[in-house]
Amino acid sequence: MTKVSFINSNNPAVTLSAVINLPEGFAEGRRYPAIVVAHPGGGVKEQTAGTYAARLAEYGFVTIAFDASYQGESTGEPRQLENPYVRTEDISAVIDYLTTLPYVDNDRIGAMGICAGAGYTINAAIQDRRIKAVGTVSAVNIGAMFRNGWEGTVKDIDALPYIEAGSAARTADASGGSIATMPLAPLKEEDAPNEELREAWEYYHTPRAECATAPGFAALRSLNQIITYDAYHMAEVYLTQPLQIVAGSVAGSKWMSDDLLRRAASGEKAMHIIEGANHMSLYDGAAYVAEAVTVLGKFFSGKLAPAVNRAAAE
Hints:
Layout: E1 2-8, E2 11-21, E3 32-38, H1 48-57, E4 62-66, H2 84-98, E5 104-114, H3 116-127, E6 131-137, H4 142-148, H5 160-174, E7 181-183, H6 195-205, E8 217-219, H7 223-226, H8 235-238, E9 243-248, H9 254-263, E10 269-274, H10 281-284, H11 286-303, H12 307-313
Parallel strand pairs: 3-4, 3-5, 5-6, 6-9, 9-10
Antiparallel strand pairs: 1-2, 2-4, 7-8
């Protein structure tokens, strides 16, 4: 694993921080398929995204997990901005960087993400045709989640106060005071409305996976972009790449994976259900992650194989 940093091609004022994993037996002069891994909202590359990136490298891929602009060890102000449009563009910026590496095969680039990172990956794949295969784990369409709630039971219009709160936060931020923030996962155990989200608190705020660069909150102004964002916008038309979805059988967020499967235009799409897993189980539960990695590793190995190998398999 090697830590790298590079200028964000979408915003030269931002430097992205990432870790690259090389496959075993890596040889200079060869060109390898690559996979970009996007972290959850509130996460960083040292957590679940880094776990999946490292494990997928074992399948012969160059993998890269990165911190989003304004987050983690990447630069940019205001800190902890969770602008979904920026986060989507970050994925394409990372691909821009990969295409400059002599050992990456530009025709064999895949992308995956966990939680909101999965939704951003889908949105990136819809508009960036360099992504040849797409994987998701515990997918969250962050706009739908904020509009409709964790289990999809809230009406869109009921999220209007969030837009108003984001608008007010922008005015307050403009006055030069401290940036208003909001939790992306419960900041206290007692704030969790259910066991699944209690695990989210545990993941981000206890030794289970806490990281100094992942405070678990976002700039409140992010709500203006989040509420009206649809990670799956135009998926019915343009998400034509092979797609592998992984979700837990008891995840409150599973409805967003179901929605993705229904909406994706891809003729090669599948959802693998991991029995007994909830949303957070797929972040770091050893057996659950192993099963997810096996599914994704086989998927990407098939879809990002050299063209001659794919033709032979077909």
